[in-house]
Amino acid sequence: MKAMILAAGLGKRMRPLTDYCPKPLLPVAGKPLIVHHLERLREAGIDEVVINVSYRAEQIIDALGDGGAFGLHIHWSQETTPLETGGGIQQALPLLGKEPFLLINGDIWCEALPDPQALKGDDVAHLVLVKNPLHHPDGDFGLMTGRVNQTSTERLTYAGISVIHPALLAGQPPGAFPLAPLLRSAIENQQVSGEQYSGHWVDVGTPERLAELESHLRHGG
């Protein structure tokens, strides 16, 4: 299985830290945030990774190169302007191929990786969900007996980690578009499974949360 890391965002919420450094390269516990993802993927036996880049793309490419230093082969999908999550994945599909792939938001920290064989039957997505953080109290989706829904009263938050089948994006025109509406449509069609992860997870979206993650990891988290 290949993996894709989403790393094309502008990092506006992380300013001023991202004024001169793209968010994926912000250091945490002695290494860039994105390197934690690369090391975890390699440990899981994944050796081909697609990374989409836009803002300060050259800095990220120069820092990671072809991935050889991490025991990986990195394919780069460069976006002239950010294409949002859906558009970014769609542009990268020629690099990802026709089989399901692991998708990771570059601005989260989590040790969870779903089973590469998580997709069953006609499913087009398998989502990792977590308990709602303080900054997102209402959550995103419900989860019942391994199936993701939009009707449960109790909601969980999408962790930014999933297994995606390219069929999820079938028929979409090129350009910028979000992934969320496609996921919601697939959920309505009973094509999305899920699991809850109860370990440590951080949406590293602000300088404050980056500092909290740094403290957590430095003190044996």
Automatic annotation (TrEMBL):
The keyword Signal does not apply. Transmembrane segments: none annotated. InterPro entries: GlmU-like (IPR050065), MurU (IPR054790), NTP_transferase_dom (IPR005835), Nucleotide-diphossugar_trans (IPR029044). Residues 2-144 form the Nucleotidyl transferase domain. Keywords: Nucleotidyltransferase, Transferase. Coiled coil: none annotated. GO terms for molecular function: nucleotidyltransferase activity. Pfam families: NTP_transferase. PANTHER family: N-ACETYLMURAMATE ALPHA-1-PHOSPHATE URIDYLYLTRANSFERASE (PTHR43584:SF8), NUCLEOTIDYL TRANSFERASE (PTHR43584). This is Nucleotidyltransferase family protein.
